[in-house]
Specification:
Elements: H1 9-12, E1 43-50, H2 57-76, E2 84-91, H3 96-108, E3 113-115, H4 120-133, E4 136-139, E5 159-161, H5 166-179, E6 185-190, H6 195-210, E7 214-220, H7 229-237, E8 242-245, H8 249-264, E9 271-274, E10 292-294, H9 304-317, H10 323-342, H11 347-356, E11 359-361, E12 364-368, E13 374-375, E14 378-384, E15 387-394
Parallel strand pairs: 1-2, 1-3, 3-4, 4-5, 6-7, 6-8, 8-9, 9-10
Antiparallel strand pairs: 10-14, 11-12, 12-13, 14-15
Helix pairs in contact: 2-10, 3-4, 5-6, 10-11
């Protein structure tokens, strides 16, 4: 199975913020109080491709909750182009063949606008199918390049994503190191056998160099690595001011604990900087105190729009939103805004509007790069006094 399939979910699966209410739309029951009646008349039919059973059902439920919140908001405001929004949920697990079959059924049912699936392998299958049919797909969470770009490197004209890809996250980390931490000399520690870690490390190093910094030490680790002391000492001896560590939270905790011991002895001074895999309830906030990491969405982001959306979500579902809910909401919102801006249900026109437009997301303005990846502000979080503190945004769209 493609390693990128679960890349985004590495951190999210441990964050403990998943929405757990039973919710569906036109295809099921809604346990929440009924919302005002939507407009009647013509409809815009959409498909949600999600896992609804098995171990990934909870993730699918969070995506579904976010998407349906957007549909309800639009319906309560009159729909899109005067049409009531209706949605159907299609079971799409995280493997290529079952996702392909689900998309074929979706297309056979005459639905041309699709949101999903959850994982990259399934999203690649969906992308190939909608491309052949001329339908349109927005992938909320899939991060593999082949979702929006084919094997020949050509951008799929009708396929987009709203999750921040690994490369953008690595670039954001490098910019934060340069612009906010005033770091010029950094160390890098990656797992070369893991696409997630290797890609983040590569993009961090490239952007750091582009911004006038340099990698003065680079080392490798394995998930079972026990002793990081030699690597930490080598990084310190090379004059590194910061260590970038895109790694599973178990690795982060072990390394951070050993780094704390070296700091106490006065033999090491390094700032730790990580990635969204750190965004986990299992992160050792004592060992990682003073560290930073990039992520996709942070509940305590003080921006008024983010806080307003968070409160709206809580009022609707009686739980706090997580990143998956946010991405489901933004995928649905961006699609509907593009239809409204295009003024038509013609797929090609909507796709061009998506590619060229600017959309207001929960975490800030969102546009798409030439490969249909989102360009949006990337949140950075600091570990401080046993808490996770919002440290700011990094904009990677002005390159």
């Amino acid at each position: 199975m493609i390693k990128w399939v679960v890349g985004l979910l590495v951190g999210l699966s441990l964050a403990g913020l998943l929405a757990r209410c039973n919710l569906s739309g036109a295809a099921g029951q809604n346990s929440q109080p009924p919302l005002p009646l939507p407009p009647t008349g013509p409809v815009l039919r959409l498909a949600l491709l999600l896992p609804t059973t098995g171990e990934l059902a909870t993730f699918g439920q969070a995506l579904r909750s976010g998407s349906i919140l957007a549909f309800d908001e639009w319906n309560n405001q009159g729909g899109v182009l005067g049409r009531r929004i209706e949605w159907t949920i299609y079971e799409a697990d995280c493997d290529f063949e079952t996702a392909r079959q689900a998309v074929q059924q979706t297309l056979a049912d005459g639905l041309d606008f699709l949101i999903g699936p959850l994982c990259s392998e399934a999203a690649i299958a969906a992308a190939e199918a909608v491309e052949a049919r001329g339908a349109l797909l927005i992938a909320p969470t899939a991060t593999h390049p082949l979702v929006t770009v084919d094997g020949q490197g050509r951008t799929r004209p009708n396929v987009f994503r709203v999750s921040t890809v690994f490369q953008a996250q690595g670039e954001a980390a490098a910019r934060f190191a340069i612009e906010s931490l005033s770091v010029r000399r950094a160390a890098l520690l990656i797992d070369p056998h893991d696409d997630y870690s290797a890609t983040l490390g590569e993009s961090f190093a490239a952007e750091l160099a582009a911004q006038g910094g340099q990698i003065v030490y680079q080392g490798n680790f394995t998930p079972a690595e026990a002793d990081f002391t030699p690597a930490l000492q080598a990084a310190g001896a090379a004059g590194a001011e910061l260590l970038y560590l895109p790694a599973p939270v178990s690795v982060v905790n072990r390394l951070a604990g050993q780094m704390s011991q070296l700091r106490q002895s006065g033999s090491l001074r390094l700032t730790l900087l990580g990635s969204d895999s750190w965004h986990s309830a299992d992160l050792d906030r004592t060992a990682t105190a003073g560290s930073y990491f990039t992520t996709h969405f942070f509940l305590d982001d003080p921006r008024p729009l983010t806080q307003q959306w968070t409160e709206t979500y809580k009022a609707s579902y009686a739980v706090a939103p997580d990143t998956l809910a946010l991405l489901g909401y933004e995928a649905a919102t961006v699609l509907l805004e593009a239809v409204q801006q295009a003024g038509t249900l013609d797929v090609e026109s909507v796709a061009k509007t998506l590619a060229q437009g600017r959309f207001e997301g929960v975490t800030g303005p969102l546009t798409f790069d030439p490969q249909h990846n989102p360009l949006r502000p990337v949140p950075v979080v600091q570990v401080k006094d046993g808490q996770l503190i919002f440290a700011g945004y990094v904009n990677v769209s002005n390159k």
